[in-house]
Every structure is written in structure tokens, then in C-alpha cells.
DNA sequence: GTTAGCACTCTTGCCCTCTGAGTGCTAAAC
DNA sequence: GTTTAGCACTCAGAGGGCAAGAGTGCTAAC
């Protein structure tokens, strides 16, 4: 049974009709809508063969056909047309990104929101260090004898800080020395490399007796921890409930629960540099996504940071369109992060974040 | 028609039965379960009067009764027993709070999660400054000629920072002077008070010509902005879908959408110091909450920060239990924030946050 | 004032039928 | 050999009717 050109056209028409209507597609509809000029009986024969090949499925005998996961796969790989964004769409994306480009947090969260709105599916945005982050520079701000603010600048152009209080008063000179020793010994180092030996060496060379070195070291370790550095945002989760495939409350609940779990989105794969990846049904690793579709794009944020933005929906998804959106926004975000535009006032673009109480 | 003791008992029994079962309550059930020792016919008469008084409602003629919003109100004000938490419950709450008490972010987010888990309703946690925040101390870390990290410590014991890059190289002494001038002129000041005059005065006294003062000022303004300082967390939103009143996908969608909107939770009222507030149905301001119930508790976080933690659910809620949870956790969070425990390593408890790209 | 009794109401579930969409197969037409 | 008209068949879904059950309100007796 060969996969003739005609079969491809029929499969394509079925996928596209089903994506739009969410209803099983019958032979008559295809015969009428497509420009194949074949009777429904012929289409019917072809559809039977496509079903035998595993590309279509039949909810029940007297219903039309629905694409199988494998059918979607073939559609995505071989049949779908590239979707071109309208001017308005690109404008909307750019507007969302431009406004707050100076903070990665907001960049990610706004990107997720705009994608979710444009596609009507839940969207997520993740940024994670490409390699383990390292400390670039250390500073201790002496506030008063009992209070010091530790500041660490990381190689992903992030600054972390922590207020530390000491019941025993500290000398200002001692605090300066602390910073100097940390700068000398701990820059260029990852969290894993912060060994007990290094720390106790620092303790010796500063003559610390009140735990200041230990406190600083613990701050550094937590600042470098992957959980601290990575950012994940989920937007438009409730959109799920507007989809016919999630009218089933329990099904919706299961997926929403999964998406809301912190760790879920951390596990998403990336798509390789500048690529768009499409995962259909069982191609997803997570059990909860086995009957969903995921489209994601990854991009380089510079400064040792890697971004991933994606969309989660039913397998019946307009993959071409979603992929086009994601590909476009990924490119734009890379641009934005690379400092394509310098915000007013000379602040460093996309290079800051707030560290607070 | 007076509101006799007997009527009160019947109303109480009806509310409690309905809260548990989510099904309209019939006279027979009350006659059997309550220890009033009355026949169902008598109960029936009383129920008819309670309905006439507006405390009960009838979904249709041959169904049982359901408490009206007003009925819940009376129940909450006058009838319900105080719920006592079990040892296990308090232990679970304490466990959730103790682990990460050193970061307000996580304290709030964990508190929301544990409350949502215990009650099976969506929960939210907000922290906002009681009064406009002010800058307590300023610092500029000189990284290299083109890069400075601005650090501002606020009076809510928050530290914000921003990396700034300058195309024109800066002298280290100039950067020191910048910090000194800012410390002299801008401490104790709110965002609103940062006037153009103050800024241009600072420009003059530092002899700044490359926009450094303006950049710093803009950083200070954004660090002091209420949006930047306030924190809101929503946990367990998908729990909504497990409730019988939200089997209706559209209803669930509407409420979820509302809760997920950023601004929704910012508008929640607080409950006065250490109080618990219960808002039933139309008592809520937001249209989307008019057929929901909200229970919230507020507490002082110290350092000019005010916390609110709350739960959103159907009007059919175990108000006594939820109020008890919230009251308990609010007290514990206040304790935790006040530095009830000093974490290992002498770090200042609940006084830090990360500021990052 | 309370309660037993009863007629009445209305929802819910169930079964049945009918309809229509869609199929697969066969045989004829091209 | 391929295409198509025709037809019998299948099955989900909508609609109607029916019985059961829960609950009510009212009346009359206690």
C-alpha cells in the first residue's frame, strides 16, 4: 500500500479540517471541499487505506475519521505549509516584547502571555543557564556593625544579594577584607566547586571567628543554585478550558495540575539552537502530556542563558501557525536580549533583576 | 416571624449538611440527624419560614433547601463553632513555613501552597508595603569603568539592585561620590517624593554629565514603585475543578481567568490586624466573585510590610475550618517574619530576596 | 404546637425509537 | 484498472415517554 500523492493530499485535507472543526471528518466533506475532483466513494477507499496504515482513526464505525498521532506527525513533517504571520501579529508580539525589555523576568512573562493570547493555548517560558553559573564579582556593603549586604554578580549578568545580620558587631575593615578574600578565591567558581576546603581556607585568611565566612559562602551557594537562577513562567493556563477536548473537567484538571507543578516545566526539552520542536502525543516524555501536543522553540539569551518558549495544547493543534509564532518570538527575544535596543537612560538592557527582602 | 433558637439550630444543621454533601438538604435528613427530636413535618414548617426569611433557597419545588448567601452570613456570624486544628495540621503548616523562612518570596508561596492543600481550595498570598517604601541606604559597586551595580536597601528590609552600563567610562571616585550624594539626598524618601528638582540638584553636586544620576534616579524610582515591592502568589488554582460547583467548565474558566489575572489579587481587601474576614457572594466587590466565597487573614510582617493570605472557593465552604487555618497560619507567618527563629548561619531571617537579570 | 398522612411536583434515570451521518461493499461505468 | 453510483448497515445522539424517588405543602388529628 503505497503512500501516493493523492493520499497525502487527502490526509492533509483531513488534518486541516479536523484542526479547525474538532469534529471527525467524513468522506463527503473532503470530496466537496478539496479540489481533487473525486467522488466521496473514492475518497472513502483511500481513507480506509489511510486508516489501515495507521494515519487515521475512527472514533466509531459510523463516524468520520480523525488523524492519529502518527498522522499528525506525517502532516507536520511532510505536508503542512509554512504559516506566515500577519503584520498585525508581528506587531503585537513586538509591542509586548519592547515595552519591558530591560528585565528578563518581565520579558519572559510577557512573551508567554502574548503567545498564549495569540494561540489561545497555555504557554510557558523558561530561561536557564546553559552551563553552571559562576560568580563574576563579589561585594559586601557595610550597613552597620550588625548588618552587611552581600552582593554577588554572576556570569549570566545577574546580581543576587542578601542581607545578613550578625549579633556580634563587625569592623568595617573586616567586612572589606571579607569581600576581597571572596573576590580572590571564589570568582569563576560554580556552586559545586565551593568546597569545604576552600571555605575553611577563606576562614583562615580572614581570621573570621563569628561565622561570617560561612554565612557568605552559604549565600554564594544558594545564589549559584540552579533553582535560584532558572526562571519559569506559565501563562494562559485557563485557556485550556475553552477547548472542546478539555470540556471533560477531570481531564482538564489533570493537565492543569501538571502544568502548575513547579517542576513540570523545568523538564521540558529544548529544541536546539533556533529550532522549533513539535512533540505529538506519546512523543512527550511526561505521562500527563501523552495525549497533548507541545510546540517549543529555544534561543540563546546571551550571558550563558538559554531560553525556551513553548505552547501546550491538544494534539489537534494548528502546528504550522503555532510553530510560526514561536519561531518568530524566539528570534525576537534573542534580539531583544542581545541588546538590540538600548533603553533610555543607558541602563543595561535585559541585565537586571530585583533582589529584595 | 421571629428567629427562634430552634430555627437557628435548623439553619445550622442545614448549612453543615450542605457544606459537606453539596446536595440540597431535605427535612427528613435534618429530622433524623439533628438531636432536636422533631418530626420532619415540623422541620418542614420551620424550613418554609426560614425560606420566607430569605435564609434558605429552593432550587426547585421538590428539592431540599440550600442556604442563601444571607443564610451563610448568619451562620458565619452567629452559629458556627470554632474549628480547632488537629496537631497534625498545625505540624504540617509549621513544617511548610519553617523550611524556607529566610526568603519572603518562598515564605508566601509555600504558605499559599500548604493552605491550598489543606483546604482543597485555591489560595493566595500577598505582601504589600503598609506605607510607601523609602530608601534606607544606597550603594554603588564599581565593577569596571563601564559597569556599575546600583544597590538600594529599602525600609522594608528589601534590597534591590540593577546593573548599569555606561558607554563613556567612569572614574571610580566619581562612582563613590555618586553613592555618597544619593545617600545624602535620597534616603528616607518615597518614590513620589523623587522630584525633578532633587535629581537635577544631585546632578549639579556630582558634576555628572553622562546621565549617571538620571540612570540611578530611574533605578531608585522603579525600585520604590509599588508594583516592584508588592508580591502576590496564587496556589492550587486547579483545585477549583474538583468542586461540584465548578463542574461547569465555563464557570470554572471565568473564575480561573479572573484569579490568574495579575491585578485581581492586588485588589483584595485586608482584614485588619490579625483579623479573619469572610466575604460571601455579593459581599465581594469583584463581579467574578459574586457567587464565590472568600476567606482571608491579614498580619503584620514587620518592616513596613503587611501580609494577606486568603482562600477562594464556592459559597458552600467550611468557613469555620478555613478561617481557623488562615488565622493560624497568619499568626505563624507573623512570628516567622518577626524573626522568631534565627536560621543557621546567622543570616537575617525573612529579610532577603534576589535581584537578578 | 406537633405530627401523621397524603396528594402533588419535579428531577433523574432509563428505555425506546427515530434520525442522520457516515461507512463498506458490490456492481456497473468509464 | 480505476472510479463511482447505489445500497444496506452501523451507531451516536436527540427526543419522548415512563417510573421511581425525593421532597414539599397542606390538612386534619393528636
CATH fold node name of the largest domain in chain A: Beta-Lactamase
Helix content percent band of chain A? 40-55%
CATH architecture classification of the largest domain in chain A: 2-Layer Sandwich
What is the count of distinct domains of chain A? 3
Biggest chain pair interface: A-B, 62 and 58 residues
Can you give the mean pLDDT of chain A? Answer: 89
Count of discrete alpha- or pi-helical segments spanning 4 or more residues of chain A? 12
Low-confidence stretches of chain A: 340-357
CATH superfamily grouping of the largest domain in chain A: GAF domain
**Per the principal axes of the C-alpha atoms, what is the gross shape of chain A?**
elongated
Biggest sheet statistics of chain A: 5 strands, antiparallel
Order of strands, widest sheet of chain A: 7-3-10-9-8
Order of helical and strand elements of chain A:
HHHEEHHHEEEEHHHHEHEEEH
Amino acid at each position: 500500500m503505497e503512500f501516493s500523492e493523492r493520499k497525502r493530499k487527502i490526509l492533509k485535507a483531513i488534518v486541516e479540517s479536523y484542526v479547525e472543526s474538532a469534529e471527525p471528518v467524513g468522506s463527503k466533506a473532503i470530496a466537496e471541499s478539496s479540489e481533487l475532483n473525486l467522488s466521496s466513494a473514492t475518497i472513502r477507499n483511500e481513507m480506509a487505506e489511510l486508516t489501515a496504515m495507521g494515519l487515521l482513526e475512527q472514533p466509531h464505525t459510523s463516524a468520520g475519521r480523525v488523524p492519529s498521532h502518527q498522522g499528525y506527525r506525517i502532516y507536520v513533517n511532510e505536508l503542512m505549509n509554512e504559516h506566515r504571520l500577519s503584520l498585525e501579529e508581528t506587531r503585537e508580539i513586538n509591542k509586548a516584547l519592547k515595552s519591558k525589555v530591560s528585565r528578563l523576568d518581565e520579558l519572559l512573562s510577557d512573551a508567554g502571555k502574548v503567545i498564549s493570547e495569540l494561540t489561545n493555548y497555555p504557554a510557558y517560558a523558561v530561561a536557564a543557564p546553559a552551563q553552571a553559573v559562576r560568580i563574576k564579582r563579589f561585594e559586601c556593603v557595610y550597613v552597620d556593625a550588625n548588618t552587611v549586604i552581600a552582593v554577588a554578580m554572576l556570569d549570566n549578568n545577574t546580581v543576587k544579594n542578601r542581607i545578613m545580620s550578625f549579633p556580634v558587631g563587625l569592623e568595617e575593615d573586616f567586612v572589606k577584607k571579607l569581600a576581597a578574600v571572596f573576590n580572590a578565591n571564589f570568582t569563576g567558581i560554580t556552586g559545586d566547586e565551593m568546597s569545604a576546603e576552600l571555605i575553611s581556607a577563606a576562614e583562615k585568611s580572614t581570621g573570621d571567628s563569628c561565622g561570617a565566612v560561612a554565612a557568605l559562602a552559604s549565600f554564594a551557594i544558594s545564589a549559584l543554585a540552579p533553582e535560584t537562577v532558572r526562571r519559569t513562567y506559565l501563562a494562559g493556563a485557563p485557556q485550556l478550558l475553552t477547548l472542546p477536548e478539555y470540556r471533560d473537567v477531570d481531564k482538564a484538571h489533570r493537565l492543569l495540575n501538571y502544568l502548575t507543578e513547579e517542576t513540570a516545566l523545568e523538564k521540558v526539552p529544548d529544541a536546539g539552537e533556533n529550532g522549533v520542536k513539535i512533540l505529538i502525543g506519546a512523543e512527550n516524555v511526561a505521562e500527563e502530556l501523552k495525549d497533548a501536543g507541545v510546540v517549543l522553540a529555544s534561543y540563546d539569551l546571551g550571558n550563558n542563558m538559554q531560553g525556551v518558549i513553548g505552547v501546550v495544547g491538544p494534539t489537534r493543534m494548528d502546528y504550522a501557525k503555532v510553530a510560526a509564532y514561536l519561531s518568530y518570538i524566539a528570534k525576537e527575544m534573542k534580539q531583544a536580549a542581545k541588546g538590540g535596543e538600548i533603553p533610555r537612560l543607558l541602563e543595561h538592557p535585559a541585565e537586571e533583576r530585583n533582589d529584595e527582602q
